[in-house]
Amino acid sequence: MPDPLDLRSEHEPALELALAEAKAFLATLDDGLVRGRDADEVADAIGGSLPDDGDGALEALRELSAMRGAATLSPGPRFFHFVTGGATPAALGADWLASALDQNAFVWTSSPLGTRLEAVATNWLKELFRLPAEWSGILTTGATMANFVGLAAARRWYGERHGVDVEADGYAGLPPIPVFGGGYVHASAEKALAMLGVGTARIRRLEADEAGRLDIDALQEELERLDGRPAILLATAGEVNAGDFDAIERIAELAERFGAWLHVDGAFGLFARASESAAGLAAGIERADSVIADGHKWLNVPYECGFAFVREPSYQAGAFTAGAPYLTTEDRPAWGFLGPEMSRRARSFATWATLRAYGRNGYRAMIERHLALAQRVGEQVEAASELQLLAPVKLNVVCFRLHPPGLDDEVALDELNRRVGAAVIEDGRVYFGTTVYRGHVCFRPAIVNWLTTERDVDLIVETVRELAAVTA
Ligand SMILES: *Cc1c(COP(=O)(O)O)cnc(C)c1O
User: Fold this and answer.
1) Considering its fold, how many domains does the chain have in total?
2) Which site from 71, 224, 276, 403 is most exposed, i.e. has the minimal number of CB atoms within 10 Å?
3) Whose CA is nearest to atom 14 of ligand 1?
4) Looking at the domain assignment, is residue 380 inside a domain?
5) Are residues 368 and 400 in the same domain?
6) How far is the CA of 187 from the centre of ligand 1 (A)?
7) Mutate to test the pocket of ligand 1, among 140, 240, 299 (most ligand atoms within 8 A of CB)
8) In terms of Cα–Cα distance, which of 235, 268, 267, 285 is closest to 371?
9) Which atom of ligand 1 is nearest to the CA of 186?
10) Average pLDDT over residues 221-225
């Protein structure tokens, strides 16, 4: 009947076992199937009821290791789904230490280390993304919660514009919030608006084209009609189907002219600002009121990590301080009162360490390598007679479909692409899903992983062509 204290001597062997298991897993990343043949079977077999008596840490970790066949190689170089990256060695090592040191990045008294490191990490990120140093920032669990932070700040601003303290008094007495966005608005921003009580149905979708780019002229008309009343504008830097960007500079101009709050979701697109060649896509973001990005995407830190930045720090603090008597000062922020969680993992360890390890130039090199790899895949698609590129490759996502010569029936084409998409996932050599873009079912592999090279991306087109031939 082991109590953890009785088994305290397992502490070190448990870490050694974890190290051995981690090494074994990492050794499979380059050439293993992204999804093993028996992944479903292994996952489905996990179960049983809560044991009355445990068998100790080593046995538990051995059993956990035996489940590895159900893991996807999502930190590996051939996982092109969801625009998520892996974990650099610096980030992974630091993340292990975040667990071992188990710091609560809540306030200075809970951890000077966790508190200070988050301030430095968020400042470095502002430098990487060329955002003004005076903005506030915070690390979150991902882009969804980062959107939540930015939009909570916007909500507070909206209340203040009407003389209402939303955190204290709620929405009573406030008119519904006008929210404008295009078709690129990510589901997570909608989710954030739902959680904030703004309501997803408040989003007016103004789409300039079939892809969904925010319609600037329509936006201007809507803002003129509001006649000075405040509104929230949602712009997307890097949408998930084709990696495209809303016209952020022009949206920022309108936000400034009409006094609206501009929130930019740059979950992966914000990283364009770390590359000179791609920065133009994300121009104007420094004029927004709130901006977010993901860490577990292009920064290649382990889950969970996202970032939110807010131009006017008092809106972020006001949204989350919730009347608690804690002081936030510039160099000793009380992180537990600047975002949704109070007790918080020190996710700054991984972010700080990876930026320390590779620096601005290391990230620029990685991002530019990915941009070149995406161009390479785009060229391979264009060179293949049975493939069709559906959007120009602007960043790191390649949006394409099978379109064999002579097959023009859209229903049949959708069916074919869906079938081959399922076969790609099943096959496991490379990994990406299908989406619907401009009404067409298509593929959209995204290149985000620090390990990915030509040999990996060349498998994208090769696998699709091969599976199309065998499933035809
Ligand atoms: C991935 C993504 C999100 C959501 O990020 P999570 O980290 O999964 O919460 C939000 N917006 C965009 C544009 C994304 O690509």
Assistant:
1) 3
2) 276
3) 267
4) yes
5) yes
6) 8
7) 240
8) 268
9) 11
10) 98
* Closest residue to atom 1 of ligand 1, CA basis: 267
Residues 6+ apart with CB under 8 A from 21: 61, 64, 65, 68
CATH number at residue 123: 3.40.640.10
Distance separating alpha carbons of residues 320 and 304, to the nearest angstrom: 20
Q: Which of 265, 270, 300, 347 to mutate to test the pocket of ligand 1 (most atoms within 8 A of CB)?
A: 265
User: Which residue has its alpha carbon closest to ligand 1 atom 6?
Assistant: 143
In the block, residue with structure tokens 């966005």: 181
SS3 of residue 232 by DSSP: strand
Q: Is residue 185 part of a domain?
A: yes
* Neighbour-count burial for 66-91, b at 16+ CB within 10 Å, e otherwise: eeeebebbbbbbbbbbbbbbbbbebb
Report whether pLDDT(1) > 90. Answer: no
C-alpha radius of gyration, the chain, whole number: 24
The whole-chain average pLDDT of the chain stands at: 96
Q: How many whole angstroms from 313 Cα to the centroid of ligand 1? A: 23
Q: Higher confidence at residue 322 or residue 112?
A: 112
| Atom 3 of ligand 1, nearest CA residue | 143
Last residue of a domain, one of 300, 325, 356: 356
In a domain, 444, yes or no: yes
Range of the domain at 257: 92-356
| Among candidate residues 36, 54, 69, the one where a domain is terminated | 69
Each residue's pLDDT tens digit, 47-92: 999 999 999 999 999 999 999 999 999 999 999 999 999 999 999 9
Residue nearest to atom 2 of ligand 1 (CA): 267
Whole-number Å distance, alpha carbon 374 to ligand 1 midpoint, is 20
Residues with CB under 6 A from ligand 1: 83, 142-144, 186, 188, 236, 238, 240, 265, 267-268, 294, 306
Q: Is residue 397 located within the same domain as residue 452?
A: yes
Tell me, yes or no, whether 237 and 323 share the same domain: yes
Whether 86 is in a domain gets the answer no
Q: Provide the pairing of β-strand 387-389 with 306-310.
A: unpaired
**For the residues 267-283, what does the mean pLDDT come to?**
97
